[in-house]
Amino acid sequence: MKELNNTKERVIVAGVSHLQPDFEYTMEELASLVEANNMEVADTIKQKADSVSAKTYFGSGKVTEIKEIANADDVKTIVLNDELTPSQIRNLEKETKLSFMDRTELILQVFSNRAHTKQAKLQVEIAKLQYQLPRIHPSGNPLDQQSSSGGLANRGAGETKLELDRRVIRKRITYLKDQLKTVDKTINVQSRKRTNTTMPLVSLVGYTNAGKSTTMNGLLNFNKEDSDDRKVFEKDMLFATLDTSVRKIDLEDNTSFLLSDTVGFVSKLPHNLIESFKTTLKEAKDADLLVQVIDVSDEHWRNMLDVTERTLKEVGVTDKPMIYAFNKADLKPDQIFPSIEGDNIYYSALDKKSIDTLVDLIKKKLYSNFKTVELLIPYSQQKIAEKILRSSQIIKKDFLNEGSLITANLSPDELAEYSEFIND
Ligand SMILES: Nc1nc2c(ncn2[C@@H]2O[C@H](COP(=O)(O)OP(=O)(O)OP(=O)(O)O)[C@@H](O)[C@H]2O)c(=O)[nH]1
Ligand SMILES: [Mg+2]
Known about the structure:
Elements: H1 2-6, E1 9-16, H2 23-36, E2 39-47, H3 60-73, E3 77-80, H4 86-96, E4 99-101, H5 103-114, H6 118-132, H7 151-195, E5 201-206, H8 212-221, E6 245-250, E7 256-261, H9 271-276, H10 282-286, E8 289-295, H11 301-314, E9 322-327, E10 339-341, E11 344-346, H12 352-366, E12 371-377, H13 382-391, E13 393-399, E14 404-410, H14 412-417, E15 422-423
Parallel strand pairs: 1-2, 1-3, 3-4, 5-7, 5-8, 8-9, 9-11
Antiparallel strand pairs: 6-7, 10-11, 12-14, 12-15, 13-14
Helix pairs in contact: 2-5, 5-6, 6-7
Bound molecules: guanosine-5'-triphosphate and magnesium ion.
């Protein structure tokens, strides 16, 4: 194992603060992302400036300093805290003869290593190619494209090859997008089957490694014997989950809800990646209730909460009822758990009593606007009775001479739909 560590590439993480209020935090995140990418942080370089340089991201003095520190540390790669323009990277590489990786490329690499399913692989590859498209050069040498030393003839040939390379990449993006559409369609058919029922959908969302998958597994065990085949993958690493899993949770009073677990968030998630992961995040968009899982034992939990809220807004998930689920309370000294304060719960996903309390809160939020009513449906409209029995929360049913008498706990939508059958 030790030997493995020695083979890790050592890199320097560097960033310009440019008036970002959470700069220090994003630099710490960058270091975690570097580790998640199986590299090691040898040094950290920061520059305070009101803005970044359009030419080299850092000011010129800093560029020289980086070169010196990298040489002293015997490091060849610098990882940067922002997404840079292709020309900024080119200029930096030209001036320092070092290799630069920006935050977007790093996140894409981490996602790429974690992608296992066809959908996740396609999503990541599309985002990667879109990132590469404006950054490829006619030769491996980034300096060739701009230099005029090769003479007109060479340059012309280079440009043609560049156009050709770009066309190949564009074609591949189109091809992959088509493939993704087919995969998405299959997944959509499955989720449409679900939406035929009126079972409410609860979505776990939150920062990566907060404990969403562990919470899902805890809820899966609720009311049931251990059922390993339904469990989702949980692990102490960034972006353990890249796909969405949906499971049915049965409650003791004959009611059920659907629960989805999905990809976690981090600051400055690349736009292309978010775009690519839209289908994966669809469950959160369709959800009746969001449970935001927060690792309250992490001193940066407030930043993580902000990142999650910002990302949700970016993917168009707004105005949803939300439970703030402060997880890993067991790791926080003096934190009493499980405990509920309004829409907040302090709990541990590893603790059975916590899970019971979380279920109570989910039920309370989910069914707060439900109403128990008695419906009388004539046998001439048996199809409607069948639909209610199939998809609503049934408390009691009787078959009378006049028709089916059903006592059910109905959502506002169902109350409106079946209003003519409601016995007052
Ligand atoms: N001590 C403690 N550890 C927990 C708790 N909940 C989760 N963990 C651990 O935290 C780590 C991350 O948990 P996951 O459930 O994989 O986190 P996630 O939010 O699904 O993470 P991603 O899928 O990477 O976004 C795992 O090692 C869990 O065992 C908890 O309540 N207490
Ligand atoms: Mg997970």
